[in-house]
Amino acid sequence: MKKKVTKPKPRRTLHLDTRVTQNESDIIKRKAEECSLTVSDYMRRCALGHSPRKHLTDREIEAYMNLREMRQHFVGITNALKGKSKQEKLEIFGDVTFMRKWVRAVTTVLKYWDNLLKKMKD
C-alpha cells in the first residue's frame, strides 16, 4: 500500500501586531477558548473570513445525547406502528383523530430534531 504524500504546511514566520483594549482582549481570549483555539489561530481564522465554532460543553453534549436517544425511541414507536393494522392502531390509541394528531406531531418533532441534530454536528 502506498503512503499518502502530504505537502508540508508553510511555516508561519511573520508577526502582526494589533492593538486592542483590555476588554477586547478579554473577549477575544474567551472566544478563542470557547472554540478550543489559541488566540493566534482564532484571530487568523476570523481575519481570513472563517467563523470558528464553539465546542460543546459537557452539558450540551449530554443534552445532545438525550435528544438523540428520545428521537430513536420515537422512530422506533413510529416504525412499530407502520406494521400494525388499522384495528391494532385503534386498540392502541382508542381514537382515530387522536392517532392522526399524534402521528403528525411526532413527525413534526422528528423533523425538528433532525434539523437540530444536524446543526449541532456541523
Number of strands: 0
Major sheet details: none
Q: Give the radius of gyration.
A: 25 Å
Order of helices and strands: HHHHH
Mean pLDDT: 83
Question: What structural class results from the helix and strand content?
Answer: mainly alpha
N→C terminal distance: 32 Å
Number of DSSP helical runs: 5
Low-confidence stretches: none
* Helix content class: 55-70%
Gist?
The protein has helices spanning about 20-35, 40-45, 60-80, 85-95, 95-120. The protein is mostly helical and about 120 residues long.
What does this structure look like?
With 122 residues, this protein is mostly helical. The protein folds into 2 domains: 16-55, no CATH class; 58-121. Helices cover 66% and strands 0% of the residues. The chain is built from 5 helices and no strands. The chain has helices at 22-34, 39-47, 58-82, 86-93, 96-121. Helix 1 crosses helix 2 and helix 3 packs antiparallel against helix 5. The radius of gyration is 25 Å and the shape is elongated. The two termini are 32 Å apart.
